[in-house]
Design brief:
The chain folds into 2 domains: about 1-140, Rossmann fold; about 145-325, 3-Layer(aba) Sandwich (Rossmann fold), CATH 3.40.50.720. About 45% of the residues lie in helices and about 20% in strands. It has a 6-stranded parallel beta sheet with strand order 8-7-6-9-10-11, sandwiched between helices. A 5-stranded mixed beta sheet has the order 1-2-4-3-5, sandwiched between helices. By secondary structure, the chain is of the alpha/beta class. This is Glu/Leu/Phe/Val dehydrogenase. GO terms for molecular function: oxidoreductase activity.
């Protein structure tokens, strides 16, 4: 396991265990060059600690790139709690986790992710000041999937503009993999533009619930959605769905969705490109949720956050144009954009340190 950590460029990886509550978690900070690391807490029944570590390292790097491409003064971090949230999540465990977040003194801010909700953040915040994504009753912005879905929608419009010369999605067939928080809201945006929508979810109940609300939506088996004739394939569930086998079956022209870590490994980006499939990197497409919880840190203003999310259209278009002009892939172009901003803006900052004495924050070069 140490070899996994040593092969990354992460600033810090923290293993958290509390026997009394059963907490087993990992917090990974990729970079604080632009500011304190912000990223959600994923609560998931990983098969092993090694699998959880691999996931959190990839997710935290993507968060750093996401913040950089979105123009935020934030670094990238992520946390995973190992276990089935339906079985082991409770106040004692969440508060124990909150104490570990607090122990980092503001180098890492947590928020919601798969398996965690604003109500969980309220409990974590009883032990830590560095929590965002909270309920409105406790001064938060509420569900971050609202602006996440909006950002995915704008990225799709940019992809349509780039490939078809118009940002309209009318008449396009979009396959949405995942009828969860983001998928449900994305479907509403798509239907408002008279797109044709096909939805798949491993939970038949979730899929049926969505179709009951939107009878015009077509349901499909998850394993068959990839091979459907689609204009856009939108992964909006867990990551890693795109690998050599699934990409060979993929018939969509565009991949643009809200899930994190959609590629099984980085080279899949080139495989998609070689097949003539436009892949918009997930960390630029789904930045809306990050923008929302980042805005909450200083006092949430919905219109201000929404205006920044709307810019995902321009960012996506810039990335695709750069990729075309330079003969590379959008993911490569986005990565260069992120690394360039981290290097240029963060070169005099290096590592973020909290300064409790001044009730603020300071950077220290180490």
């Amino acid at each position: 396991m140490s070899l996994v950590v040593e092969s990354t460029d992460h600033e810090q990886v923290v293993f958290c265990r509390d026997r009394a509550s059963g907490l087993q978690a990992i917090i990974a900070i990729y970079s604080t060059a632009l500011g304190p690391a912000l990223g959600g807490t994923r609560f998931y029944p990983y098969e092993s600690e090694h699998e959880a570590l691999t996931d959190v390292l990839r997710l935290s790097r993507a968060m750093a790139y996401k913040a950089a491409c979105a123009g935020l003064d934030l670094g990238g971090g992520k946390a995973v709690i190992i276990g089935d949230p339906s079985e082991v999540k409770g106040e004692a465990l969440l508060r124990a986790y909150g104490r570990f977040v607090e122990s980092l003194h503001g180098r890492y801010y947590t928020a919601c992710d798969v398996g965690t909700y604003p109500e969980d953040m309220d409990i974590i915040a009883r032990e830590s000041r560095y929590v965002t994504g909270r309920t409105r009753a406790h001064g938060g912005a509420g569900d971050s999937s609202v602006l996440t879905a909006l950002g995915v929608y704008h990225a799709m419009r940019a992809a349509a503009q780039h490939t078809r010369g118009t940002a309209s999605l009318r008449g396009m067939r979009v396959g949405v993999a995942g009828a969860g928080k983001v998928g449900r809201k994305l479907v509403k945006h798509l239907l408002s533009e008279q797109a044709s929508v096909v939805v798949a979810d491993i939970s038949k109940a979730a899929a049926e619930h969505l179709r009951n609300r939107h009878p015009e939506v077509e349901l499909e088996d998850p394993e068959k959605l990839l091979s459907r004739d689609l204009d856009i394939y939108a992964p909006c569930a867990l990551g890693g769905v795109l690998n050599e086998q699934t990409v060979s079956a993929l018939r969509a022209q565009i991949v643009c969705g809200g899930a994190n870590n959609q590629l099984a490994h980085d080279s899949i980006d080139q495989v998609l490109n070689d097949r003539g499939i436009l892949y918009l990197p997930d960390y630029t497409v789904n930045a809306g949720g990050l923008i929302q919880v980042a805005d909450e840190i200083r006092g949430f203003n919905h219109e201000r956050a929404r205006a920044r999310v709307n810019k995902i259209f321009d960012t996506s278009l810039k990335i695709m144009t750069t990729a075309t002009d330079t003969g590379t892939t959008p993911a490569h172009a986005a990565g260069l954009l992120a690394e360039q901003r981290i290097a240029e803006v963060g070169r005099l900052r290096s590592v973020w340190l909290s300064n409790p004495a001044s009730n603020g924050h300071a950077h220290a070069q180490v």
